[in-house]
Design a protein that fits this description.
Organism: Methanobacterium congolense
Helix content: over 70%
Protein name: Dolichol kinase
Strand order of the largest sheet: 1-2
Number of strands: 2
Structural class: mainly alpha
GO molecular function: ATP-dependent diacylglycerol kinase activity
Radius of gyration: 16 Å
Number of helices: 9
InterPro entries: Dgk1-like
Largest sheet: 2 strands, antiparallel
Number of domains: 1
Order of helices and strands: HHHHHHEEHHH
Keywords: Kinase, Membrane, Transferase, Transmembrane, Transmembrane helix
Shape: globular
Oligomer: single chain
Strand content: under 5%
């Protein structure tokens, strides 16, 4: 559990993307995300044959045995969300925050306290999904009104629980789509 806590803290540190979004254009933010993926992949490859101070320690502390590419999916999801929804950066920011904090909460709470499995999903729990919904809604409320925030967190939680691909890609996109639809229907 300690390793997972460190992993989720690194995951949540992606909030810097939201903060930078207040100071730079969406296009620069996209380039930054792509640059970070290239840098991280280069460091991953170097780490296989060389010890890299700080990075090797972080990687050893945070990496899951079966997931070497989660950070790439993380940045793909964020980059696509920025690209598709850049016309409303509040929606983009809310979707990124939902991914960062909702996903972390669902993992930590689900693994620690999860007792009730979701229907048709033996790997996820009701407790984890509920924590995703509550935390996701809370962070989305920093960017958007109540109804879009709830819809983004709800559809993000469902996507996180049932996505057949790594949830870092579809969660922010589905959340942003749900919030955008609610905003533009009102």
């Amino acid at each position: 559990m300690k390793k997972e806590l460190w992993r989720q803290l690194v995951h949540a540190s992606g909030v810097f993307i939201v903060v930078l979004g207040f100071f730079i254009t969406p296009e620069l933010l996209i380039l930054l995300c792509i640059g970070l993926v290239v840098l991280a992949e280069t460091l991953f490859q170097l780490d296989k044959s060389h010890h890299i101070p700080l990075f090797s320690r972080i990687l050893t502390t945070c990496k899951r045995k079966d997931d070497e590419r989660g950070f790439i999916y993380f940045f793909i999801g964020i980059t696509l969300t920025i690209y598709i929804f850049k016309f409303n950066m509040n929606v983009v920011n809310a979707a990124i925050l939902i991914l960062l904090f909702g996903d972390s909460a669902s993992t930590l709470i689900g693994k620690r306290f999860g007792r009730h499995k979701l229907p048709f999903q033996n790997e996820k729990t009701f407790e984890g999904s509920l924590s995703f919904l509550l935390v996701g809604c809370t962070v989305a409320l920093t960017q958007l009104p109540m109804l879009p925030a709830i819809s983004g967190a709800l559809f993000g939680a469902i996507t996180e629980a049932y996505s057949p691909i790594d949830d870092n890609i579809p969660v922010p996109i589905v959340s942003a789509l749900a919030m955008s639809l609610i905003i533009y229907m009102l």
